[in-house]
Amino acid sequence: MKKNLYFTLLIFIFSCSSSEEEIPITNPTEFTFEYNIHESLPSDWISEFYVIMKNLDNLITVKPSNYFYKLPIYAWNSNVDKPYRSKIGDASGASISGNGGAVNDKYMVLEIPNDEFEFNSMHRYSVIDHEYFHAYQMSLSKNFFDGNIELKWMSEGGAACFESLYIQQYYSYNYFKVDQNRVDISAINTPSIFEKYSTSNTVDTNYSSSVFMFLALAKELQKNGSTESEAFQLVLKDFWLKDPTENNWKAKFLETFNISVDQFYTSLKDYTNDIETVLPSESLKLESIFKT
Fold first, then answer.
1. Please, what are the domains in the chain?
2. pTM value?
3. What's the mean pLDDT in 42-57?
């Protein structure tokens, strides 16, 4: 994992510090984020964190289910040594991780690199949007929550695209152009490698290549008659509502987009590996995408 670049959704197992097991809640009525925000973080970041969380809750509410109804968040500055080790072990970086297989076993990690505060990196805010979107994906798809599908370019490409749309809308900063512009030529020549982390991490700097493929799919849907907002709703929301698995995601892809995976991969040869050729409109608003 490259520092400040890869923020992979990690689902891993380690021994819990407590022997008590939580009794699952049946038919929960609301989703709860449990905040553990360390004092090492600057006060302005903490204030902005809560503003962002409120905005995100209004835009893409994480709805509770029997398998997912709360998410602890552990956030700290990288200049201190893992202040929540007793709760989350040696987890670091940024991810939604888990204690292993149980209902509602996930937590969010936000270790913000100290240099992002020193250089006012926009990533110190966009990472919140990225990980929140993964929580939203989990609320839409139990198979995604359970880790039954990888499909990196859709899962990470979608989260990275969402964070860029948020930053574009709320900070008037084009994160696509500045921070997701290192698209590898393999996104055009061998796009299937981006279905797996293991075959694509070295050529997916800050998920630039996955974002490129994700945005290209939105462009192809617009060519087939969808409006821009409709296309992004299909790729960011509707596909995950189909609850795809590793075994059936290609069928769900065709069902959702009316284009086969092979057809889409072939269409990528009509593009150049330049993020600017697939950029969404700067006027595109998240409210228009998630209106239903």
1. 32-146 (3.40.30), 152-289 (no CATH)
2. 0.91
3. 98
